[in-house]
């Protein structure tokens, strides 16, 4: 039976000339599992919002379990039949107690109290949050918050649940749990629509729909999509195991994990190894770019709600290194970055930022921050100027630059960020796509000509192509290749939830509950130094290496030579690592 | 933490979950007692009533096992204003004040009547602060909102949007840390680019311009977050028809008794001066 039916759905936002969706048609059956992928701005969120009447579609274009969300009565029926889980975990929590939040939808439907209790309990049990039922959602991790949103959805007994990039803002463990919940829903006969940028996630679905410029350009099985040669043109990528299988000369299998692929590779006795570029980082004798000594920091120090965010961390970031900062949500990554930048100051211990003590009263913090600026999460939300060029000029103007020097700075930064100055300086930031906005925000930091860059989840919530562009931009900065007068390597510290990204860094710092759990090169961190208790997942390449060489238990990837003088994985007791 | 920190991490109110006879009261009973005590502390002219309304919250705090010192701390910020008011009382004599002069320093005198007035004023403030402090200490965010709905329930029958008002309060609680968080994030983003808020700028227009990098993005983000929350609520069928409530705040016989006691107290404070007028 058809649960979701789209019949040539078009939608144009009021005041906009271009349609956001044009003639999209497909059908979704009971217990079906559909992934929707496409670049930022391709119409995915618009489509999902037309399904339950958050945006009003044309009459007759959408049918949800027989109801038309274009009509007022149909809208109510559609919202009962289709639950929506949104991208940002905190933005969909209404109540101040977990179980009351699950009940919110039921209250609105006028369900009797005893019936509500049964359904709330069932929903919380299904997402494994029963023990947290009387807590405040504020104290849940973002992964738990997203499971709470799922509980609120399934308590309403929907026929279909749509996830709108619901895994893009949570850590690997939280993501795994939410993906597992999607499988559970499908098993229990509830249809799932999953809007995502992650091709590994999309490959889990039974079918994939690709949107491009508001049009449905592909609808078919994952196998059909990923064997297509139109992927690049659609700004999409292949799942990790799929690409690895091709690199190994094996037939790709959809949804195969690293272990299974590794076993196949061993059986096939393939001689090729998974591609990985990995020059070992050799620290110079130069002074570290950032140095923390037993640094602790609490929020709301001295009040009853005091919370320790960073717990006696000692860390030297060698000059010229690219350091990936990983750890679960709330493990202290953002706080650590702010300490390095001087936006946060230590309660105890010493923080040296480019050799300057940030807690010293004589320190000009403004100067320190501009030498090693931090791009906060979603930095594009701080864009305020009407024109892109002015936005990028804001920083250098604050440095006192003007005239031709200023123009040169802005030009270099915008060119480096892939937004050519001549073409983009007079573009209004609000007309740019999500990926471009992110690059503009980074350009407005590069224009400071900083000695080091601090980036908080720079690649989050972007489509695969935009993600690759951002990472290339960071690599370009680190290697000194663009926007800089000399060619020395420059320091970058960036947090990320993608371990595959972290594996390409020179060094990886693992945070756990505010403390530095480990610090060293990726081959050690993801190899023999690996610790399950960090609550992370290992990069695909490392999982594959392990699967392909089961005999060597000391999981050092065969394809990578050990660094001559490796930075040791440190014990938490004394995290000073450099020799 | 030093550096840039905002309200983001603050929990609204001071509610700490606990089990006590006071905690167990329904939100309506708590609201009624709060109103009765604040009313008696502010309106009554009788010294006896003001004393009673200052002592009662402390007694309730004892029952609720809330630290009394913690409640009185809320009284501290008011002290300077009290001090100024007290000085005025002492400097200017009441007309026709014939009470005993307790202290005299040249032309400045402190009469017994002035002393009583100052003490009563202090007590009124103390009563108010400790009552409100106690209320927020024993009432969760959810109950604070639900209590409003219950208090206005009689009016809801004639179309007063009690439910909507309660939800508005609940959402406001949720939103304060969200907006504070957005503000913090934008301030940090601009500070990283060398923004120097206010400092050095002269003249109102230049001063306002210095805040432009904050106002524009914070406003946009706050609206975006509000829209996201509104969408999430709508998607969960908010406002589709008559709603029910998950949390039961009916209360038993003891609670009804507490409500009646609050009303008797409120009525009583106006009766006391009548019967015990000096």
Quote the distance from N terminus to C terminus of chain B: 56 Å
Strand order of the largest sheet of chain A: 5-6-7-3-8-9
Shape of chain A: globular
Please count the beta strands of chain B (DSSP E, at least 2 residues each): 3
Percent range of helical residues of chain B: 55-70%
Helix content of chain A: 25-40%
pLDDT average of chain B, as an integer?
Answer: 84
**What count of helical segments of chain A does DSSP give?**
20
Which blocks of ≥5 consecutive residues of chain B have pLDDT under 50? none
What oligomeric assembly is this protein in? heterodimer
What is the molecular shape of chain B? flat
* Beta-strand fraction estimate of chain A: 15-25%
Please state the CA-atom Rg of chain B, rounded to the nearest Å. 24 Å
Number of strands of chain A: 20
Return the structural class of chain B.
mainly alpha
Our count of helices of chain B gives 11
What does this structure look like?
The complex is a heterodimer of chains A (579) and B (278). By secondary structure, chain A is α/β, with parallel strands linked by helices. Among the domains of chain A are: 2-235, P-loop containing nucleotide triphosphate hydrolases (Rossmann fold), CATH 3.40.50.300; 376-449 and 452-485, Rossmann fold (3-Layer(aba) Sandwich). Chain A has 20 helices and 20 strands. Chain A has helices at 44-51, 72-81, 98-109, 113-126, 142-154, 172-187, 199-202, 222-226, 240-247, 258-268, 333-341, 365-371, 388-398, 403-416, 421-424, 434-446, 464-478, 499-502, 522-525, 540-548, and strands spanning 2-11, 21-29, 33-37, 62-64, 82-85, 160-164, 191-195, 207-212, 215-220, 290-299, 307-317, 322-326, 344-345, 348-353, 356-357, 374-375, 452-456, 491-495, 507-512, 515-520. Chain A has a six-stranded mixed β-sheet with strand order 5-6-7-3-8-9, with helices on both faces. In chain A, helix 14 (403-416) packs across helix 16 (434-446). Chain A is globular and about 70 Å long. Mean pLDDT of chain A is 88; it is low at 552-579. With 278 residues, chain B is mainly α. Helices cover 67% and strands 4% of the residues of chain B. Chain B is built from eleven helices and three strands; from the N terminus they run βαααααββαααααα. Chain B has helices spanning 21-24, 27-43, 47-64, 68-73, 79-91, 112-138, 141-151, 153-156, 162-192, 204-235, 253-275, and strands at 2-3, 101-105, 108-111. A two-stranded antiparallel ribbon of chain B has the order 2-3. Chain B starts with a strand and ends with a helix. At the A-B interface, helix 2, helix 3, helix 4, strand 10 and strand 13 of A face strand 1, helix 9 and helix 10 of B.
